[in-house]
User: Fold these one by one.
Assistant:
Number 1:
Amino acid sequence: MILYIGRRLLGVIGVLIAIAAVTFTIFYVLPSDPAAAACGKSCSVERLAAIRTHMGLDQPLWRQFADFVTGIFTGRTMGSGQYTLHCAFPCFGYSYENSQPVWDLLMDRLPVSASLAVGAAVLWLLLGLSAGVTAALRKDTVTDRVLMVGAVAAASLPVYFTSMMLIYGLIRTAGLLPYPQYVPFGHDPLHWASNLLLPWLALAVLYAAMYARQSRSSMIETMAEPYIRTARAKGLPRRTVVVKHGLRAGMTPILTIFGMDLGGLLAGAVITESIFGLPGIGRLFYGALSTGDQPVVLGVTLLAATFIVVANLAVDLLYAVVDPRVRY
Amino acid sequence: MTALSPSAPAVPAGSGPWQLARAELRRRASVKISLAVVALFLLMAAGAPLLSSLGGWSPEEFDKSAVDPYLGGQPIGPLGGISADHWLGVEPVTGRDLFARVVHGAQVSLLIALTATAIVVLAGTAAGIAAGYFGGRTDAALSRLMDVTMSFPSLIFMIAMMSVAKDVNRVLLMTAVIGLFGWPGVARVVRGQTLSLKHREYVDAARVGGSGPWRILTRDILPGVSGPVIAYTTLIIPGMIATEAALSYLGVGVRPPTPSWGQMIAESVAFYDTDPMYFVIPSTCLFLTVLAFTLLGDALRDVLDPRSGRA
């Protein structure tokens, strides 16, 4: 088990370095010169050269990348002479736009994106799994049909469409909810939830529909297994059969997609955040792109990749807990 | 014809798997409806210039007489200016014909989504077959590559790549960028299927009979994986359409004045209070297309790949 975890962690680091390398190459080589952008319109040749040296842009690309990666693990000193700047661990560099450490910017925005993702995940798991399991247990009845038609329709709605409908229906027409404004959980949990309810719903509708479809098929397959028949035959109550025997095995495939979905959303739901004006990582990323702020773009991409990879690892480890057949 | 029970469809005895699949598909109402919708939108996309010339407007043509300058450029007439002249109404402020724009938008959206799907399926099938059949180092290398690709935060990465690249053909770039992240899904399906096929007796027989790897792959393995691949392909098309729309919605997709559904929806959001039809029309097109492809994919999976997916 420990050996397995160790091997997987090495793999995780390898994958992240590969992603960092690809992202670094694309965003530092392709676009226009960041030094020129930082220097402004009336820029002398000497000043440009000084800025390049300061930013480390005069170094060969592999050197820049190596510095970047070591900076993440140990922190590093940037620039030279009077412009020396120490960037503490974990150093993702400084934003070109407002000279703040990228790490601070990310950690500033993370609570918003995480609140959005986690709240939506709770909602969609509740809605999606209960719909899916209900449909599976009542296979080929009217309930099943209605739920599945609803699910396939909801899965086809783009998230911005659902969001606009919710804004129009619940805020503009009914006036039931406030227009979302982020309130930190620590300040006022009730306001935090009521403000985020709408974005949660908008995201949850889409994912709940997909989870309902997945969990239905998985439950139907599980409930047809011989061991379920055995459990029934020995006279266990239906509830015990469904919850203890069926759900446990039926939910393992769901766990895989859940890890990927949650991991992907934690680092920012770009569309949802921009529609509801939530100051999360998605918005930070979108803003950084329009100003060509590469360190921030790179930072967000890496953070997102980390979440995905770590979520996948967590799922694989959880598998051993959920499914007794899995051993590492 | 042998004796068939009266309720069974009239399938000739000894018909091949593809004939059986077709007969099974033909019995489903959802297949007929979704095929009709898909065909409608494909025809619309293919015949976009023709259709918009029938409507009398080109997608980039302004019609100031269809909007009211005193009401902030509101379309004149009910339901966003729907009239005999403008079949689906007009865009606020500019007065561009919505029918022409929706039809041309279909062309852009479907062209990108379908080409990206083709890239994904070709690359994924090739990688999956190679990994599954050759095994060993090839498999290890390809599987690692799949892991890395799947760990990319794809939407974030796509948005970034689309906004970084400035002076390139937007449609081509978007196709490539969307296609780049889809192939591992197909590759995994194909790899699994190939692994289960490569030691079947008929494959061994072909090997003993002197067939080379190329011949075995194309003649013996490929036909065996094609069923699941077709089902999977149809199921990823809606995702591709939605991704294209999402990128265009965020303003990093095709550039105006070229219309695309996602971009039209994004523009219409500003007017959703005063001119809801402008929002409803492209959204409905997007919704119907995605829905139809999903239903079609569900049916194909049930028939062609009965083991995975729904019982």
Number 2:
Amino acid sequence: MLKLENVDARYEGFKALDGVSMNVEAGELVVLLGANGAGKSTLFNTISGLLKASAGRISLNGEDVTGKKPSALVQAGVVQCPEGRKLFPEMSVLKNLMLGGYVHRRDRAGMKKTLDHVLEMFPILNDKKDDAAGSLSGGQQQMVAIGRALMGRPKLLMLDEPSLGLAPLVVKQVFEAVQSINREGTTVLLAEQNAFAALKIATRAYVIENGRLVMEGDREAMLGNEAVRKAYIGA
Amino acid sequence: MDRVLNFLASPAMKIVLLAAGILFPLVASSEYQIYVMALAFIWAIAVYGLNIITGYCGQLNLAHGGFFAIGAYAVGLLTVDYGWAFWPAFIAAGVIGAVLGFLVGIVSLRLKEHYFAIFTLCVGFIIYLLIEKWEELTHGTLGVISIAPPEGFGLVDFTETIPFYYLVLFFLVLAIWLISRISRSLVGRTFLAIRISDDLAQSLGINLMRNKVLAFVLSTTYAGLAGALLAGVVRFIGPDLAEITHTFDVITYLLVGGIGTLMGPLVGTLLITWITQAVQSFEEYRMIVFGPLLVVLVIFMPRGIVGTFLTWRGRRLASKAPAKQSASRVENKNSEEAGTHG
């Protein structure tokens, strides 16, 4: 579905991505592991078009999308849920969610359907839909952020560290939600530092270090890999 | 106390304000006061325009005074040199404001933050230079004299102060109504998303350039129409209208009233206009009073009078409400003010 070939990207002058090649098949849940500053967000921003790749080729279902505008990519079904949630704190939960459906704004019936589905997936948001997003707890805010991304009806959903700053129990809920989104047919690319929790729901994983993909493997191989365990699981 | 607060933020308050606007000529002590109020309304319309691009969309535009002058000159030159009547010239001023806004916008909005502000500062200065130096078109430093006033209908004669006052009041109400519609719509929330974060807005699929240009064109159209009204009442304009000081005046009105709020532009413009009137005897020295006041205001009330009021009221309601949930809910009921215009 998504294919990167030798992608380079510069961020504020230095090379933040160096020859990244990766492949995400439809229906997969692929985890991108990496420490702070390894290039996870840069890679996501490059795929979603916020950053321009300085070399290489990105294609979506065989079609070249290198250098396309972010809005065009969202139209094409690539939706990013940014790191740190980034909600509109003073807007209500409902308005936050509706903004996520921006590209489908003319399809009211479809938006209503997606909204019902999101509220069904996160019932707590239904209770709080008229509350200001900023008044919610961290976990609930993350649900709004994921729900907002789902409103764009992604074919490929990119989640950038959804577990950041959340309590372990909440992380578990969030990851269960991610897994169920994936099972319903949305391809997921998940960037995480929390390797153990992420790998448990993953199909495959890549490891990124200093802007390079240094390792790739399926869930079992990654969980069993000594280097991965040492670096990201701490056991 | 809470009743007063709730009333100030309620829709009924808008009706009270409108009634006050309608009744003002009856209670004004002189025709001069009505004239000053009409001028203040015209500037308020321009401030509403600036609020779209700078308040809601977050892009500091320093060419606003320039577009205001373009609107005034459009009416001045079309009526004086080309013999147009006021109303067609008025519409032309709006169209010219929109078209020039579009052309400047598609270039300048490629820049971000300070760079956009500096670019528009230069645009404003270029507009001033063009008006001052291009004598064949603009009459240069001589200015444009005996501009056609708005044609009245029936017994209504807009060269008289009171009918003109009501004409301007009509346009002001129209301007505010349109902005309140926009700010509550998806377009308004799109502008707000852009102000909060370019990147976030883009990840939602918002076409950044298209929406920024739309906000810019709306704001320059407002500026052009406000300038056109000014030309219709003062009937003499010179290149000083395009000087940067007018841009800074408009920004001051916006900051004092409350940037990004619905009623801020009106509150700021009226307040400063009348304070200026009150201290007119100080002439240029009044800036010695205004300067420090503005500094204090920006430090302690960065959201201006209306913004600070809404934040304060929101907090008060939140702390008073029995359960936390209902508190945030109450706050949200007012999101039309506290949120969308926040």
Number 3:
Amino acid sequence: MREVAIIGVGQTPVGEHWEKGLRELALEALEAALRDAGVERLDALYVGNMLSGQVEAQEHLGALVADFAGMHGVEAVKVEAACASGAAALRIGYAMVAGGLADFVAVVGVEKMTDASGEAITAALATAADAEYEAAHGMTFTALNALLMRRYMHEYGYRREDFAPFSINAHRNAVHNPYAMLRFPITEEAFASARMIADPITLLDASPVCDGAAAVILCPADQARVFQERPVRIRASAVATDTVALHDRRDPLWLEAVALSAYRAFQQAGVRPEDIDFFELHDAFTITAALSLEASGFAPRGRGVVMALEGAIFRDGRLPIATMGGLKARGHPVGATGIYQVVEAVLQLRGQAGPNQIPHARLGMTQSIGGTGATVITHILEALD
Amino acid sequence: MHPARAWRGRSQRYRLEGELCEGCGARLFPPRDICPECQRPARTPYPLSGRGEVYSYTVVYEPPAGYEEQAPYIVALIKLEEGPLISAMLTDVGPEEVYIGMPVEMVTRVLHRQGEHGVIAYGYKFRPVLRRAVTIPSQPASVTA
């Protein structure tokens, strides 16, 4: 296996892009990443996306993006794994370069959500769950996470307000990220009085519906310096799966695929949780952040919320999370999110995160969670000296 | 939903028919053909009792397309007597009355409708266990069971 480096990153602002479609968003991110890398020729292009078939009646995004980008003939396919689609596409791109099948690979995550009504998007997102036994019974994605949050509060004795630091931290970090969607701070009072979506989850526990695209360029690490002064090495890339339906889990509050994926990533990289300088986790809901911290090995079971309450997740804490706003405040264009996380981690590791810079960040971890934890993909990235 | 798809799931949605693992005795719902406990085939049909208790619940205020007329509605994870958890709507009960641990039982109701000419999908929901008035012959009074 060859070492793989990220030599270029690009992203569009996350938001409601009424004036841009899937192909324009994807191209904008791809061009920015190619410029950043100074690369013109690509061997392959992988596109992470979840909802294009449902929202835009458009599948076949590999060929579509390659065509629109003027890369006729290039190898290109779409990769789908619900909200982990972007990270899944990166996993494939990584494997291609590591295995020697390609040298220069672009991975684009793109999602267009705002062309559909709220009810249609809610139904579309629920396709990540079990259609016959969850969605057919009126389950929404928010509802499934609300079931977890209520049970978590019941078992460990937390109040709703105890989850506030996750959202306050994410919003605070989004203020200085020019690509974030919700660039305003929120207060504990606002969190406490936010509108209910699926009890106990409110608008301020949940990530917003939005559009966006992000891209990275990969190449063999031994060629990286030719293109990029500050390349970032992919130290680990690990996927694990669990039951699609939440009700099929023996222990719903323990995200087994998070534990497996994080464990495999730590093994590959030869590092321990305490070596990680910051963690771009999948805070689609505040409860998801808590469960991810626990199963990834950063907090004991039932104590993920305590990590937030103690400030360990803040920029000056033991393990900063959502350093550029996270899913909560940067926004969660679902199939693009995994690539946004990696782009932000690369900026941190290059020392280009602006006012949000984590001092001396060397080792960053990203994690995408598809569904209620059915597909979990963890990457560990390292600044190359 | 295509009529064939609705028809295919009839045994599960109307009768809560799961599967029995002959290998280890686990009772499974929904059917999954391979036992998650012992990895052996589990294909013997096994109707579940439909009794259980609320493991967790939530109220859906922002429904998906096709469920707008029912919102707000309660969905729950229910721990069935035989062991499995099941996802279902709660009915005949208000959000303020539900609690974790509440005993519930299966009933058959309309799950969703697809317009005037589409399939009306029936299936299981769960309601609080009713206290039944049972009249015993030869005794004038009724007792509550």
Number 4:
Amino acid sequence: MRYSSVSRRGFLKAMGLSGAAGALALAGCDQNPASGTSTEGSTTEGTAAAYKLGGIGPTTGPAAIYGTACANAIKLAVDEINAAGEGATFEQQFEDDAHDATQSVNAFNTLKDWGMQVLVGTTTTAPAIAVSEEANKDNIFMLTPSASSTDVIGGQADADGNVTIQRKGNVFQMCFTDPNQGTASAKYIKDNELGAKVGVIYNNSDAYSTGIYNKFQQEAESLGLEIVCVQTFTDDNATDFSVQVNACRDAAADVVFLPIYYTPASLILKYADQIGYKPIFFGVDGMDGILTLEGFDPKLAEGVMLLTPFSADSADEKTQKFVEEYKKEFGDTPNQFAADAYDCVYAVKAALEKSECTPEMSASEICDKLVAVFSDPTFEFDGLTGETMTWQDTGEVSKEPRAVVIKDGAYVSPENATTETSETAPASEGE
Amino acid sequence: MGFLENLINGVSLGSVYAIIALGYTMVYGIARMLNFAHGDVIMVGGYVSFIIASSMGLNPLFGILAAVVVCTLLGITIEKVAYKPLRQSASLTVLITAIGVSYLLQNLALLIWGANPKVYTSVVAGWPKLMLFDGQLIISAETIVTIVVCAVIMVLMVLFIHKTKMGKAMRAVSEDPGAARLMGINVDSTISTTFAIGSGLAAIAGVLLCSSYPTLMPTTGAMPGIKAFTAAVFGGIGSIPGAVLGGILLGIIEVFAKAYIGTQFSDAIVFAVLIIVLLIKPSGLLGKYVPEKV
């Protein structure tokens, strides 16, 4: 997902060159409810013993919106569970890592000292790669809500078929892996007959974008989806997209796949609008956020489709309840990170109950039991981000991707939007 | 038609490079230093006008004025604090300081405005665009305004430097600061004025850059700044018409490289052309061996 390279350039520059001063300074002005180095809350001391659930994510710095969303959602879920008081209950602590791998490992160690038994985190990819190594070494169960790189779980072959990072057996993901988004997008475009000719514009200086594109291209080939035009850009020339958009138009692409972040996407949409080119723009989770871009004219995004596991306006009862509670508690509409983190807590709870763990067990014993449950294909979990999710022993989640289409400046399910191409999407069967 | 369209897109991108390059070349020509913070002053200009025009909803004209005022003051401050004490130091020291100022500005912007990108509302939003060949060729209002502003600034700067007393002082300082001082020219205030003008130009460049390519982040000015610096060198650094020519050519080369050779190589080709030009004509297209510095 996006954080791994959210302003990666800016980040390298800001953090690498100016050191942590920038991050520290940012911490000072961050007003989110979960800021500070640790947020200890929702403790259930006094009642029956509770599991110690740790969370890590950036609640300060440029990627703060993601970590804050996770911290809030974990708190919300734990409070709900403890208030209900049935089955496994939790004591939770969330640590800030400012989207920095070193700080994230420090946060992990702090949580270990606190006695953490299960880790829900870390939120962003680069820190998650570092922390998953540690969690693997210490045999502490780790379920990341949103770190989507295959390097987090390990054991995946790269483009040349080599496995460079060994499978970290105790690390699982709640979100789709980057390559899976490419496969899912190609399938969705084909199954729903969005268009016959597909154009692609991707960032070839970014691993996230390139990874999705490569899988998309393979899947499109095997499905017989015709890719008529492939255009690239890099972080360094992400200002002018006239050539790329013109090329897609000249190739008569009626769907343009954009496996990129929303910032360059907004420029592409603007130029396409300027020259009057109106294909279906199809994005992945990096597109999520385009509507919250300050100053962005939502009319430009009208009809844009994207795969995202969660949409806050879904009619689903569970989703509505979550959105309402979250708004009441934190005054904000939850994003997909919040939903993923919320699901993580409930999935861990379900697995703990199924595995007959007790809070007195050591983190390592709990880890072994949880790994067995998560690797078991009969363990199914219904959450906000998907129905009947299962996990494989590779650590990847298996759930149906959902597509949303932007209509009047909001996400709606394609069947609710009266666009000419919308059909009932198999992907949204859960709603 | 494709060719003409690419040409127009190239000129449109190039005109943005040109207007940024004017500031680089002005400061280099007179103060003989590379102000690497120029790109970041542009970003500040973008943010200031964004706040006035988009957040406060005032007329974009106020936004431009505020941006010019803030950037001019910022330029003078940077010069006083960071560059002036180093006037007698080696040029490398000043260069490194300039890079430091650049990162300082980027991080201050990160602190003040956050990392989330903002979408800039064009200052000429709603102005008619030029349609040619039954609407097959579209030239946006931003492009036309940028080119016109670029040309006007170029002419005004040449006139200022050649016709006014201050301009004469600037030329004298660029020729020989020591001799200029002996002739009773206040070298320090002349250089400060140069920075003030250069930074004011940066504000206008920031407004036009963000109008054409409307995402505003703390790093917005960095890459266009480097490209514009390349353009200034390409056209002959120190030469005002050279900066405009270099900027527009660079934009055209970049778009053509993307369109006809491939999007993967565009930057490599742009810089390869720069190397070839400098090998053949080391002082740049319009530069002279003993350049009459602005």
